[in-house]
Write a structure and sequence with these properties.
671 residues; alpha+beta; Immunoglobulin-like; C8orf32 fold; Jelly Rolls; 3 domains; eight-stranded mixed β-sheet; 10 helices; DUF3857 domain-containing protein; signal; DUF3857
């Protein structure tokens, strides 16, 4: 056994060495304007045969300049990419966003754009320069512009390269340098020189893939000063850091991962402070308390927390005085949702609320600000709970960041010790039943008066559960006739209601259910049809066909399976698996055996779990008199599994699928 393992490791190492040698053997240039014959002849990338293109090199160089007696930052970017397949030609279309607001004198500008394509035609290199008419500028918001350009004459086999500069007045902000993307990268280099006056903290993600050199270098800046305003050189030292990544694999969006960017090799910068000669050190490192203050002072956030209730008259008809606090919150939210529809945008700041009311549509932030004004009108204390939505990346743990905040939900005080959470994007949920995209593990309460707990985890604020009870009779022809009573709670109630609302009509909804589970619905009943409720109770009379011969009946004791196929079948997983929310499932079945039949084969009872109780499953089946009693209990307790745990997850779900597909064999009794 040990010899086999050693042999497998040796073979894997040999393959890895061969791949690296193949890349090294090719002549690749990291100089702009120079393309080698090997690059033109390259038809695939040995480290990733599926890649439609590969970044041969990407370089960034960041320098501080002193112009007009003030600092600015100059970013120099170069990129060379080999197009391997026709669908890789889209990488010849480049977009560069930059800041340009009429409300701010500090701006960014993109200059010195240059781009070429290279092709091998009849054995000769053909170089095509991008003309200026291929470059376009457009405004994408009141704060941001973008430059777009398309490199011409690009096809499978082409090599493309481009470079540009960004000049930024925001000397105190260094953008994150991301070394990985959806394409594999052969070589990535980031060279940054930071004057001694600027103190930055750096966070490296994927540091095991990044080589770093860090040294002090002399720099000289020209300062206009003196009575005659003469230019005088100022000598200083600077910190020069070079980050290099080689043969970096592609990081693509994958199933069940919210934000792939969180897992890319990258360098994140945060300004700690300014230390100019002759001046007192000015710290810039902020605190979450300072961010609270900034938000509360902002007209589009704190200003809207003072909004007057626009639906005071409409609320009078709700008879709120007779309700509990929880029912008041629910009634007010339902009234608001009838007035304002969510426009499917998540935001942190509100806009023109009068326009939102007039059009009847707004972002979740717009709706949330109105909701808080309505709740406060009836004495329900409430505050915004700010966060980064799950698809926008996690909040940094190393430092506070207002830039990473992008939306918020409403935290309403139900009792002295409990809060309930709501959001304007809820369509079929309930109190605490937030859309999965908002179920973050860190959200911060922003309040000028509330000095209680500031941090909340929202990923377990509601219990999501399905409980099903099935009582049925097995007929001699293999048909199963019975009744299923199901209670959907939490997220499952919302999902079920959403599915029902999406159907064309009730007939289409029934047909959809029948198709999914391959059965016939004889009668369907459901309570809690309203869109805002904590659970749904469903009752179905049904018939379902099992497999039968003259002598045998083959029946699945689950009747309705939890799952049929393993969703985790990848050979290798680079990213973690992130579940939407924890949940549980309980199915209890009682199946009457037809007269004249007996059980010949019965599945084994099992109970198993993942390490650390990440998930558990109990599968219990027994025969009592003429009935088959089956209990299936499943729970998914963890919602995050590292890539290294993928095989355990795969094995766990494989066992679950096998149990869900096991059959009971009934045999006709001999006379």
């Amino acid at each position: 056994m040990n010899k086999t393992i050693c042999l497998q490791k040796a073979i894997a190492l040999l393959v890895l060495i061969q791949c690296c040698t193949a890349i090294a053997a090719q002549e690749l240039s990291t100089k702009f304007g120079k393309v080698t014959n090997d690059e033109l002849l390259m038809s695939s990338y040995s480290n990733d045969s599926t890649a439609s293109a590969v970044v041969l090199y990407k370089k960034g160089r960041t320098l501080y300049e002193y112009i007009g007696n003030k600092f600015r930052i100059c970013y120099n970017i170069e990129n060379k990419t080999k197009i391997l397949k026709s669908d890789g030609t889209s990488y010849a279309n480049v977009i560069i966003p930059y800041y340009d607001s009429n409300k701010n004198t500090m701006k960014e500008v993109v200059i010195d754009i240059d781009a070429f394509s290279y092709n091998l035609e009849n054995g000769k290199e053909v170089k095509t320069k991008m003309k200026k008419e291929y470059i376009f500028k457009e405004r994408v918001s009141d704060k941001y512009m973008q430059v777009k350009f398309s490199i011409p004459n690009v096809k499978a086999g082409s090599v493309i390269e481009y470079k540009y500069k960004v000049l930024s007045d925001f000397y105190y902000q260094l953008p994150t340098w991301v070394m990985q993307g959806e394409l594999p990268v052969v070589y990535n280099e980031y060279d940054i020189t930071i004057p001694q006056y600027f103190k930055f903290n750096m966070e490296m993600r994927g540091s095991d893939q990044i080589e770093t050199t860090d040294e002090s270098v002399p720099v000289t800046y020209t300062v206009q000063g003196g009575a005659a305003y003469q230019a005088e050189p100022v000598h200083a030292t600077a910190r020069n850091i070079i980050f290099v990544g080689k043969n970096l694999p592609a990081i693509k969006d994958d199933s069940q991962v919210w934000c792939a960017d969180d897992y890319k090799a990258q360098i994140i910068f945060e300004l700690l402070g300014l230390d100019f000669p002759g001046s007192v050190y000015q710290p810039f490192t902020t605190t979450w308390e300072k961010i609270d203050e900034l938000l509360l002072e902002d007209e589009e956030f704190g200003g809207l927390l003072k909004l007057k209730n626009p639906f005071r008259e409409e609320m009078r008809s709700l008879n709120l005085m007779q309700m509990s606090t929880k029912d008041k919150i629910a009634a007010i939210f339902c009234l608001l949702k009838k007035k304002i529809a969510w426009n499917e945008n998540y935001a942190l700041y509100g806009k023109d609320i009068s326009k939102v009311i007039k059009t009847g549509s707004g972002s979740n932030a717009d709706i949330n600000f109105i909701l808080m004004s309505m709740l406060r009108e009836v004495g329900v204390a409430c505050d915004p709970l700010v966060m980064s939505a799950r698809d926008r990346g996690v909040l940094p743990y190393t430092h506070p960041s207002i830039q990473k905040l992008n939306t918020f939900v409403v935290a309403a005080q139900e009792t002295d010790s409990t809060k309930v959470f709501l959001d304007g994007s809820i369509t079929c949920g309930y109190l605490n039943v937030l859309p999965p995209i908002l179920l973050v593990d860190r959200a911060r309460l922003v309040s000028a008066t509330n000095n209680q707990t500031k941090w909340f985890a929202l990923n377990r604020v509601c219990e999501s559960q399905v409980r099903a009870l099935i009582s049925a009779t097995i007929m001699p022809d293999g048909s199963i006739v019975g009744e299923r009573n199901t209670v959907y709670s939490g997220q499952f109630a919302g999902r079920h209601r959403k599915r029902m609302n999406a159907a064309k009509d009730s007939t289409a909804f029934i047909t959809d259910l029948e198709t999914e589970d391959d059965f016939k619905i004889l009668q369907y009943q459901q309570d809690s049809k309203e869109d805002f409720n904590s659970q749904i109770k469903e009752k179905i009379s049904f018939t379902k066909q099992a497999s039968a011969t003259d002598e045998y009946i083959y029946i699945n004791p689950m009747v309705f399976k939890h799952i049929s196929t393993n969703p985790y079948m990848q050979e290798n997983r680079k990213l973690p698996v992130e579940m939407p929310y924890p949940y549980s499932l309980r199915i209890s079945n009682s199946l009457t055996i037809p007269e004249g039949y007996q059980v010949e084969e019965l599945p084994k009872q099992v109970q198993f779990s993942m390490d650390n109780e990440g998930g558990t499953c109990r599968y219990l089946v027994q025969v009592v008199d003429n009935r088959i009693l089956m209990t299936y209990i499943f729970s998914m307790n963890r919602i995050f599994f590292a890539a290294e745990e993928y095989n355990f997850l795969k094995e766990f779900w494989g066992t679950i699928v096998n149990k869900n597909n096991e059959m009971i064999v009934l045999k006709k009794k001999t006379l």
